Amino acid sequence: MKVDPAAAKLLPAATKKAGVLTVAMDLNYPPTSFLASDNATAIGFNPDFARLIGKKLGLKIQIENVSFDTIVPGIAAGRYDFTATDMSATPARLKVLSMIDYWDAGSSLVVSSGNPAKLSLANNSLCGHSIGVTVGSTQAEQYIPLISQKCESAGAQPVKPVILPNVQDALTQLASKRLDGVFYDTSSLGWAAKKQSQSFELLTPQYKKQTGTDLVALGIAKDSPLIPALHAATQAVLDSPQYKKALNNWGLGAGAITTATLQQ
């Protein structure tokens, strides 16, 4: 992939001189962000996308593996230039970040094979059940409270959310029967169900959004001089054939979008 001159021209002089961008990711979320078998190389769609951004800007990409809940404060403190992880724009995040949409992820429920609790996101069957969610996720902060409101309106018990550090921990608890289901991004849960079909089953339909978004976005500090260059580079990647190739490589082709919307 060639450098995009228009995007590269927007880079601050200091960044051009340094020749590198530092990107924060939580590498515990296959197939979007995880470690290869060498336990050192970042692989998945998000690392691939970040590297495409680097190529468009003519810069190297340095990926820092950090826990999801430390990413936003780390960017705000200037420890990382931006994040390309499974993060969507929320009012709380937009108070400290500018965010650029780059693909569309759905939200689904995975259960033990055979769905013993007969759960579904299409009705009130989650009421009173223990459902694993990850700390800081849209599912934990927005969707579970909405589902619980419906439960209580129907005279049922609210969902019992079990907040865990990452989706791997949640799946481990599901496999050991400590949870009735895990509510997270369709991409990661579909990957888990594919790899461990004897243990997990991905339910349909996906969650029907009433609020929030499943658009995944880059996150950059609000006062960062990198915003114009990253916005232009993201759109340039979306316009390239390498974008859909990267998505398809991880089974995420349905999540392609065409516009890199900047939210500030």
Count of alpha/pi helices: 9
CATH architecture of the largest domain: 3-Layer(aba) Sandwich
Report the strand count.
14
CATH topology of the largest domain: D-Maltodextrin-Binding Protein, domain 2
Form type: elongated
* Uncertain runs: none
Fourth CATH level, the homologous superfamily of the largest domain? Periplasmic binding protein-like II
Pairing-aware structural class of the strands and helices?
A: alpha/beta
Measured as a percent range, the helix fraction is 25-40%
Largest sheet: 5 strands, mixed
- Rg to the nearest angstrom? 19 Å
CATH class of the largest domain: Alpha Beta
Strand order, biggest sheet?
10-9-11-8-12
Give the termini distance in whole angstroms: 29 Å
> What's the helix-strand series?
HHEEEEHEHEEEEHEHEHEEHHE
Strand content: 15-25%
| Number of structurally distinct domains | 2
